[in-house]
Amino acid sequence: MRIFLILFLAFISLWSSAQIKEVNFLGKSWYLHGYDFRVNGSIYSERYNRTLIKNADFPSDKYENFILSHLATNDIIHRQPNAYNFGVVFKPFHNSDIKWKRLIELAHDIELVQRKFKQYSFKINNGRYTLYNEYSLKSLNLGYSPKLTINSPTFLRRFKLYSSIFPSIRLPISGYLYTNPDSSLLTTLNQSYTENYTSYSDRISIGYTELGAGFSLGLKLNLHCKWNIHFEQNVSSIHSISSNHRKLNSGTTHGFRFGIRYMYGTPPERDKKKKNRQDTEPSIFW
What is the separation, in whole angstroms, between the first and last Cα of the chain? Predict the structure, then answer.
């Protein structure tokens, strides 16, 4: 992950030097503002996760009944972070005379979303509780999410609050449910899979397309005229359709994102009064 981030920042620095700030589309100047990279950790509603498992591509009804009959009521172990986002940010009203319009941003995000969790339960053996793993899910989806953001005016020179709304669509790249079925259900249980530090004897497909819509509230911190970082809390309503055309699955998710933005170009020049201040004065957002 660290190597990926270094390569990403180097790529942005090289690419931006060859770009123009003003982007014309549909007869309008959209003003390329910068590039976002964010890491996201989300918690999905338990009902959504359970239905996701039920929509897996089980090889037979007996196999399905065996796995689902072992579903426990204990919490599900999640692996985080589970999403990585790269976005291109525009300020469509950058030169507007209306102040609040200049606070609007429009972004286009590409998402790589991975899910890793396992259901577990406890059994009592000789009066002692023993951890018993039921199944493990691993999936990878590629998504697109446009985002509309409105920012607050700058306060304390370096800070802004912001709020965003966004839809999303995530298409499956891969997805497997790792299980340990009874030997009578499959005669070819000669495989061995290790996932989430647990061994399983079989795996089945669990690809799904995910649709969602949500909003976020966040805080930006200006570090430099070309860099800022941001922190945000987000909530989404999500719906998924499994690859084997089972019925719709619905739920919610909430999470926390940390992001860094590289801002293209140069900030607007200060007026003459501000130019007389010390050079060490903190840079403003632009």
Answer: 30
Angle, helices 46-54/61-69, rounded to nearest 10 degrees: 150
225: number of Cβ within 10 Å = 15
Tokens of 16: 């931006």
User: Which residue, among 46, 21, 16, 2, has the nearest Cα to 268 in the 3D structure?
Assistant: 21
Dist. CA 155–CA 160, nearest whole Å: 6
| Residue entry with tokens 């972004």 | 107
Q: How far is CA 17 from the centre of its chain?
A: 28
Enter the DSSP assignment of 155: B
Per-residue pLDDT of the chain (286 residues; tens, 9 = 90+): 444 444 444 444 434 443 336 666 666 767 888 899 999 999 898 889 888 888 898 888 898 888 887 665 555 566 666 899 999 999 888 778 888 888 899 999 999 999 988 877 666 667 666 656 678 889 999 999 999 999 999 888 889 999 999 999 999 999 999 988 887 887 666 678 888 778 888 889 999 999 999 999 999 998 877 889 999 999 999 999 988 767 789 999 999 999 999 887 655 554 444 444 444 444 455 5
Contact 92, 104 (CB under 8 A): yes
Q: What is the DSSP letter of 90?
A: E
3-state secondary structure of 7: helix
User: Taken in order 64, 65, 66, 70, is the CA torsion positive or negative?
Assistant: positive
